[in-house]
Design a protein that fits this description.
Length: 214
Amino acid sequence: MAIQRLNLRDQVRIELIDWLSDGRLAPGQRLEEERLSRALGVSRTPLREALSNLASEGLVEAVPRRGFRVPKLSAERMRDLYPVIGSLEGLTLRLSGARVRELTAGLDALNDRLALSHLSARQRADLDRRWHETLVSRNPNRELATLLERARSRVQPYAGSWDRNAADIEASRAEHAEIARLLGSGEVDGAAEAVLRHWVRGIQVVAAWVEKTG
């Protein structure tokens, strides 16, 4: 398999997504291209290309005659998006067939690490992202993979919602464990339904965080 090399625009895009996730680009902030190009060490051309790409994904907003800005946090957006992601992940499991049974050990290992008390919200968000990436790693459908990647990229700015109480963390871990158990026993339809419930329940947690943050 050939190694894919990212062009400069894509490298800038990935870096900006990280900045959106960890708060270096704050909700509502106007994105000053000159300052960003200096900080990233790139010219304004790949920066603008990356920003236009992020705008098409809904991660930044294009403002007529004023450039780009970071959207304000929106619980309503997550209410619309979370069920879509849950449905896409469930479809991925159904298309993956029996191969999903071999994912159980990796899912459980990542889920165990989520219980560590010293983790930051960003570290928990990264572990959760890796858990969900592992969950769909046997997906045979490239078009579905692209749709799912784009949908999940839009929740990156909400990584701070993992600054949550122990009860909410354990609730997420319990749901992860149940999904893995269902996969391990070959109950793929049940696992797909549990994934959707998992994302829908997460709406309440994220909405509470948005209200507190805003």
